[in-house]
């Protein structure tokens, strides 16, 4: 019995010892597992985009952390336009010794942009492979933000993003309209337009906003101006309801100016006129000849005084149609309009800018292939010098920028689909410009346009409402 009991006891001890060892092993395994999970959490890449919500002309900051040191990654942006087309941009980066990539200080080594470009993921956007040709982004519903999905991918990728799983993703909203901005439809005296009013009780300095012959009526620049403290009225003048182009003459713009000037929320006689392309030609003509339109200042983007608009738009288009043989087409079958404008018999009909009595800002790109911006600016300067009002003229000429100088960080469109207003023919219009210099022009010009308006309309430095 003694030996049996001892053997049994020894066996029992061995079982207890083995069980203790197994428990210790399990505890170690669990600890290793927990440490592994903790390490995985700690090394999971994090992507931050700040601010998550902001105005289109507000810069954002992108930062990626928790990457392995010296890892190659791709920052990628994706946007679906109001026309349901997808646009993308991407840059190639390498994380630093801390495993971080910071978009506002690190350099992109390649992609749709290179160098230190905090906003490159916006202004270098292009249609994704397989998209329709000749696309252009035009915001139609300004009360819906431009949503941009920003992702970080492992490696330096240039295609096939939809087939890859991103390491991290974030969505940022870019708004054309600040909180509190009001939109008012203008349907008065046959005038068709949209007035945007800043938050508050007013009155505000006013801007009459004239687009060019780009197609559909757009409101986003006026909405952005209102977000900066100006009562801005986007005027529809090419296809207004109940009107033909024969009716769209000087009196139409004078009525619109009066409606804006007499609005109770607008600071009377503190108005500017801002025009792009054909809108600039109209602005110059009204400022030179109208006895009704007496702006405190004018801004002309990519315009020309060589387009005679003293009568009706239909007469201007008939004149251009008669010179259609002067249109040039490049090797890519893109239409260059500037030569047609230069061919117009304008020496006797060009706008006499020597009559202008208010400060005038010209914003041009020297690679404008649509209007002769460089030649026009030089001639206008000489005309105003001869008339004694050259001191009123300020010219911004941007190297390698094209015709479509839009609000900052908007993608660059060198050539897009277009319908000629005077023939209704569908073409591809060459606007000109190179992507990076054009992006710089848009950012710098917008700041200087706002400063110019603030200076001459006595507007506050900024009245943007935070999101």
Describe this structure in words.
The protein has 467 residues and is of the alpha/beta class. The chain has two domains: 46-175, Sandwich (Immunoglobulin-like), CATH 2.60.40; 182-457, Rossmann fold (3-Layer(aba) Sandwich), CATH 3.40.50.1820. It is built from nine helices and 21 strands. The chain is globular. The termini are far apart.
Tell me the CATH architecture of the largest domain.
Answer: 3-Layer(aba) Sandwich
Query: What's the rounded overall pLDDT mean?
Result: 88
Termini separation comes to: 88 Å
Tally the helices: 9
Would you tell me the structural class of the helices and strands?
Answer: alpha/beta
Fraction of residues in H or I helices: 25-40%
CATH-defined superfamily of the largest domain: Alpha/Beta hydrolase fold, catalytic domain
Q: Specify Rg, calculated over alpha carbons.
A: 30 Å
Domain tally:
2
Low-confidence segments: 1-41
Percent in strands: 25-35%
Kindly provide the name of the CATH class of the largest domain. Alpha Beta
Cα shape: globular
Main sheet specs: 8 strands, mixed
CATH topology name of the largest domain, in short, is: Rossmann fold
* SSE run: HEEEEEEHEEEEEEHEHEHEHEEHEHEEEH
Strand line-up of the largest beta sheet: 10-11-13-12-14-15-18-19
